[in-house]
Design goal:
The chain has 90 residues and is mainly alpha-helical. Helices cover 54% and strands 0% of the residues. Helix 1 (25-44) runs antiparallel to helix 2 (49-64) and helix 1 (25-44) runs parallel beside helix 3 (69-81). The protein starts with 24 loop residues before the first helix and ends in a 9-residue tail after the last helix.
C-alpha cells in the first residue's frame, strides 16, 4: 500500500470537512447570523443587491470551510478592496 501522509485518516482527530457536520440547524443559523447582519448593513447603505448577495454567499462559503464568520467577512471585504468582485452597478 502506498503511504500518503496527507490522507485525512492519518491524523487523529481530523474530521473530513465535506462529510456530515453533525451540527443542528440552530448552530448553523447562529454561525451565519453575523454574515447575514453584515449583508443587511450593506443593503441599508444602498449597496446593490447583487453585490451584497455575492459577498454574503462568499462569506458563507468560507464559514462553511472553517473560517470564523468575522474572519470570513473580513476576507471577502479584502477581496472587494483588491478588485476581485465585479463593479457594483445600480
Amino acid at each position: 500500500m502506498y503511504f500518503y501522509p496527507y490522507h485525512p485518516g492519518f491524523y487523529p482527530g481530523y474530521s473530513y470537512p465535506y462529510g456530515p457536520m453533525g451540527e443542528n440547524p440552530s448552530q448553523i443559523i447562529a454561525c451565519t447570523d453575523p454574515i447575514v447582519q453584515h449583508g443587511m448593513k450593506e443593503l441599508k447603505a444602498r449597496v446593490p443587491i447583487r453585490h451584497v448577495l455575492r459577498e454574503v454567499a462568499a462569506a458563507a462559503y468560507l464559514a462553511g470551510m472553517g473560517y470564523a464568520p468575522t474572519e470570513a467577512i473580513a476576507a471577502v471585504e479584502k477581496w472587494e478592496e483588491m478588485g476581485y468582485f465585479p463593479p457594483a452597478r445600480r
